[in-house]
Structure formats: structure tokens, C-alpha cells
Amino acid sequence: MTTVGVVEKWVLIDAVAVSAIAGDILTAGAMRRIGDLDLIRAKSGISGAAKAVVSSPMFLLGVCAMAVSFFSLLFTLSVVDVSLATPASAAITFIGNAFAAKFFLHENVDKRRWISVAFVAAGIILLAR
């Protein structure tokens, strides 16, 4: 395993998380714009529903962001311990998704979810030490 510094480890972990957040928010936004796939399928069949999804630029951009996240994770795991990289990137993604859902998708993120975000953030602090 190649040795990387603490800052480099967290930059790699953050790259995984940021690209995952982008992918999640873009695909969720695309699916909301596309609408109910059951209704589309009822009118146009399964091929119509598939066409509605894959012809969405926002959806395709989200898939690309998810691919970047996946390959970033592969690279990160080549130089960072899995016991740090995976839980840290998942936790940062969880926190980032809550904020992005609130501010980009205008979701109602209730008090209980914000409390869980705080607990996850505390876990990252413990993990980082």
C-alpha cells in the first residue's frame, strides 16, 4: 500500500463523497422531473419508461457522477485503509445528502434527520482521531 499523508487521505475520501452526493442529487432530481414511471410505463410500455430515463441529461450526468464516485473509491481503497475510507465516505455522503436534499431538492428535512446528521458528524470526528 502506498503511503499517503493525512490530508491526502481525507481529500480522497471527500472526492468519493462529493461525487456520490452529486450523483444522488442529480439522479433524484432527474427522476422527479421525469415523473411516475408506472404512469409512463402504462402509456408507453417498459421501453417508453426506459427511454424517458436514459434520455434525461440530468440522469446521465448523475450516473456519470456515480461512476466517478465508484472509481474514486477504488483508487482511495488502494491507498487508504478500508476501515477508514468506507465508513468516512459513507458518513460524509449521508451528511452531504441531507444538506443537498434540503437546499437543492427543497425536501423537508425534519428535526429527527438533523439530529441523526449530528450523530453521524460526531462519528466522523471520532473516526478521524
TrEMBL record:
Cellular component, GO annotation: plasma membrane
Keywords attached to this entry: Cell membrane, Membrane, Transmembrane, Transmembrane helix
Topology relative to the membrane: Multi-pass membrane protein
Subcellular location: Cell membrane
Top-level lineage group: Bacteria
Primary location group: membrane
Molecular function per GO: transmembrane transporter activity
Sequence intervals crossing the membrane: 12-31, 52-78, 84-105
Name of the protein described by the UniProt record: Drug/metabolite transporter (DMT)-like permease
Originating species: Granulicella aggregans
